[in-house]
Amino acid sequence: MRRRMRAVAIAVAATLLLAGCSSDPLADQYKEGSNKGYIAGDGSVTEIPEGERGESISFSGEIETGEEISSADFAGDVLVVNFWYAACAPCRAEAPDLQELSAEFDGKGAQFIGVNVYDQADTALSFNESYGITYPSILDVQDGAVKLAFTGTVPPKAVPTTIVLDKEGRVSARILGQLKDASILRTLISDAIAE
Question: Confidence band (pLDDT; 50, 70, 90) for 85?
Answer without folding.
Answer: very high
